[in-house]
Automatic annotation (TrEMBL):
One of its GO terms (molecular function) is helicase activity. Keywords: ATP-binding, Helicase, Hydrolase, Nucleotide-binding. This is Putative helicase. PANTHER family: GENERAL TRANSCRIPTION AND DNA REPAIR FACTOR IIH HELICASE SUBUNIT XPB (PTHR11274:SF0), RAD25/XP-B DNA REPAIR HELICASE (PTHR11274). Gene3D superfamilies: P-loop containing nucleotide triphosphate hydrolases. Residues 311-474 form the Helicase C-terminal domain. It comes from Myxococcus fulvus (strain ATCC BAA-855 / HW-1).
Amino acid sequence: MGPAPSTSPGGATLRVLVDSGLRLAAADVPPKLLEGLLKSLCLPNPAYWKLVRLGRRTGSEPETLYFLKQEGGEVRLPRGAIHLLRRLAAEAGLTLALEDARTLPRERLPPMPTVPLRDYQAAAVEKLVKGTQGTVVLPCGAGKSVLAVGAMARLRTPTLVLVHTLDLAEQWRQHIRERLGQEAGLVGAGEEAVRPITVAVVQSLARWDEARLADFLARFGFLILDEAHHVAASAFYRLVDCSPARYRLGLTATPEREDGLTPLLRLYLGSTLAVVSHEELVSRGVLVVPEVRTVETAFEYAYFGAADYMPMLEALAEDKERNNLILGAVAREAWAGHLCLVLTGRVAHCELLAQRLSATGLPAAVLTSEVSREERKALLDKARAGRVSVLVATSLADEGLDVPRLSRVFLAYPSRARGRTVQRLGRLMRPHPEKKSAVLFDFVDGKVPLLRRHHAERRQQYAQVLGTAQVATAAPRRAAKG
């Protein structure tokens, strides 16, 4: 989105100031145009409708979320709404005159090494340079961070990378150090080291006051949001919406959201710059194809409604026969030399499984938010070096886990979220010289109708990513007890 005017023959002019958002004088906006903008920039509030479904009081939770602000004689829109504004203005016979007030600091980053990019990565960078904002949709292992680092080297403007976990922050700092030879600053975990390239944890910045945040964001000409599907959370989109950086880039493997807030990606980060499928990258040899194996359990539970859900999950995590089934499957693969990741939803379950595996002599470790940042980093380094056989983790490992050696993933806890399922498959698809095969073990509690339906949804998602044949060839099997 450049500052060039958007023309409509013979129409009046509507001035738009472009900084962190799009600002228009309220007096200049015709009522019909304002009505169209309001109608287009609102979405049902998923939090409100969740309360309604559960039969709970909605309290102050609004039924609808509005992304147009009117205050102080000004109408303000998210920056990615420029295409909507152009279309509605043209329909109203108006010409847009854009005044570019976005931030592009005079300070330039030093010359940096050229970052080798694949063709789809290079094409996305060029689109970003020309269009100044947008989102890249690439599968796990396809090189989203490499693309972004390549964009940093191309633009050479102070850059802020936003992440939502400290583990991701450390991974980004390592990528920047290795590929650009630059030491990135860090804001998060009590640290506030700001440098020309800085990686910041969103939750830390969300606690800053408005003036301090504005001063900080004004230092950067390039904003990158990793795991950009999180922009639908208010802390994320409010932060992005405060950034006046000329360039914005969103990175995600899973843009579609089940809560209906997918349009916020475009509203705050701009149009899609590149979409590359798993299938295309597998055909190029960029990604490997994992096999999905279904492991049926004997777990039973009398589930009658939503009130039974959490007690059911607690019983499932404590079920001895089910845990023995999981432990036996993991131990066989680990003793065969595979690096294994076991995913569950409870810290206590993680600790139990890791303890039992360690008792057999396997190097197993817990990876949860309760493990310190330094310990988590050390564990991941050991896993990459082959000195840990099994990582037992919570959802902390669902996003941003960069361990190409990983060849076995075990889903030891029920889930149906599409994004989470795709991310978990993606953990296995990164190539590595020592990876001869990749397998995802899906433990299915088929005697509980709800959990059987959840598995059916996961199978559909596997088929969408891997192809029906790949999933169909993995016949259900029952693992022996460990």
